[in-house]
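__Record contents__

***
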Amino acid sequence: MRKLTLMLCVGLAFHDALGQLAVNNAAPNLDAINRNFSLDQQPAPKSLFLSKLFLKAYSGVGFVSPGSYRINSTSAITIYDPVGGNTITVVETESKKGIGRGVKFGVGIGYAMNDFVNLGIDIEYQKGQTVTNDLGSYGNPYNFDSTFAEMHCNTTSVSPHILFKALAKPRYFIYNRLGAIFTMPFTLYRRQGGHASESQNWPPVADTIGSNLLTRNYNLERTDRVSFGIGFNVALGINFKLTERMRFFTEFFGNFSALKSNTSASSSVDKNINDTYYPEYDYTVDPPVYLGYTLQRFTTTTHINESTKYYKDGTLTNQTKIVETSPYPNSESYITSNGTSDRFTINYNSIGINCGFLFRF
């Protein structure tokens, strides 16, 4: 009986084993299939380098230019007084604003070294505002001097920099930036001119000796070629997360460069009109009898074209001067001179605000 029971148990166990083996052979392994299907559908892993690379585009405006190169105006008038002598008044002013103001546009590329430090390089173009300076001195309708001056320039610069995250949050971070700024050679344009009048015993009256009126119109156009220069820039800004690949940033910036002039060229026209009153008398009688006066006009127009090359130890200037006179003949001269003045410094500073977008790969 015991043997029969043992044989029955062994038979049942063998039967169950055969049944389980049949099921395993007939049914597919769903876990393995799902795992293989999932691996086949996953995208290729993104490059670590590209994941840290970003592009940016921005615009801004420089609205303050502390210490920048400015333009000067000078006005001078002389008041003739036959009793108390002559009074000469000279006034000189400097423009309140300097170069470095104006709208700017830029693009850049950067790389996230880690969670706190980024490296980048920007290229900027700035359309500078025109700097003006007007000045006038007035004594009377026949003694005055009114002058004007203006200048402007457009610049392109390249700025490699390093950015430090000062405060990082999930949706934004605050940063400061420090970098160098390489200003490409550019042209500084300026224009100056004025209208002046100077008189002595004018307007003329009968029996007056020595009446004279001198009027002047002056115009000068000049270009200065500024050489390649190096400066530095700083910024403090905030960067906001918009999407996984796009961010918005705004920053206060400061650019500071001390540049040097390379060459200059100018063309000027200076026209002077001198009206002189000559009284006429009849000397055949005694005392002489006043008959009237003769007004004689003498005109001088001076054209000067000048070019200057600046060196480390001095300057070389070529000047062509043409003087047109009426009613007398004209004259012309050509001058080449060596100077000792050094290249003058053109400070190009700008403080303002930028806004833009950043795109990650």
